[in-house]
Amino acid sequence: MDHFNYREGQLYCEDVPLERIADECGTPTYVYSRQTFTDHFTRIRDAFAELSPIICYSIKSCHNLSILSMLKDLGSSFDVVSGGELKRALEIGADASKIVFAGVGKTEEEITHAIDSGIGWFNVESEQELEHIDRIAGQLGKPATAALRVNPDVDPQTHRYTTTGKKETKFGVDMERARRVFKEFGRDRHVKLTAIHIHIGSPVNKIEPYVASTTKAVDLIQSLRNDGFEINALNIGGGFGANYEKDEAPPAKAYAEAVIPILRDTNLQLLLEPGRSISGNAGVLIGRCIYTKSSGDKQFLISDASMTELLRPALYEAYHFVWPVKPAGGLIPPHRGHDLKLDGTLLMDVVGPVCESGDFIAKDRWLPPVERGDLIAAFTSGAYASVMASHYNSRPQAPEVLVEGNTFRVVRNRETYDDLVTAERV
Ligand code: LLP
User: Can you list the domains of the chain with their CATH numbers?
Assistant: First the structure.
């Protein structure tokens, strides 16, 4: 599933021992594997090849410029949700005409910049937003194309914070309202409403919700076409799973095999917005044990990697497999499941130095004994890790390192204390 493997008792990324990176770059540090990014992107591209989709990698999952540039070279386009993400896509020379711009609260400034840049589609979430885009496109005298985000009311069976395709969430408009929106905005406007967008949640480790939501979208498109509206594209969003434990995420091929038959004869340009399924397993976060201590029966491993580098456990109680980079007693993990309990391991919480009891990256795990100075790795930290980092407790942002075969390079420097205060005035 990725290129992070134990060899001769220690963890490697591709052909580079993580210890070497830690010694040279310090900790905490995010480490990415180029080959894993490539493999995951290629699998999605190949799985959906029959429909020649436009794959818009979701920048929000991991936004480092060198990653975006690598994906662009593999043929990826981009899904952006802010002026900042648009800047990143344009910075690496992405083809603007294939960029999709999503988000419920696009500002006047962001819309103007996006139209000026000639982006492909706005994924529109409300009538007010459509009015706004229509007016700005008119003033600029430049066309804008939009996909209406509809809410298919399908349960993606994932965390409530990352469920988006249910009626009660803030995203999109419901099916009934979609028809009314097309009546009002579907003809003779500066904004051309010619596509439908759905995104049901993230991660979605089931195939069925995609079948249900894509079928509903195609039915809607059929009825809109019957009413004379010209719809030429369907964006089925992102949300494909990543393997945090064993094989809980279906392979790209399985999603594709279920969705392709629904779309085969529809004459629609398919767009996809995968993020985590490409970036999730392509990164780990490494940290160093600062201290160990025990309290009652509990052991604590206090690492320099914390919630400010990996917020997901604190925010969603998300599971990330954590293991020493050079495990004592040669205890190499046979898998990354939450139920792993090898002989010689101790029950531990892996916590950071931040002043919050929610500052943990792993709770109640059976880990090999760890000493001060040992390195640990939190796996599947390529997606929604560095991008959700914060400066809480005035912690400088950790660097990002990209491994390519037997070499590595720093693709984002570690912030300094000066960087932390540079934008402030006394
Ligand atoms: N398209 C839209 C409209 C989205 O809202 C998202 C993610 C994606 C695509 C990409 O989803 P992916 O393929 O990466 O699952 N912070 C959370 C995830 C939030 C996802 C937000 N939207 C986490 O750490 O799990």
Answer: 4-32+280-422 (2.40.37.10), 34-277 (3.20.20.10)
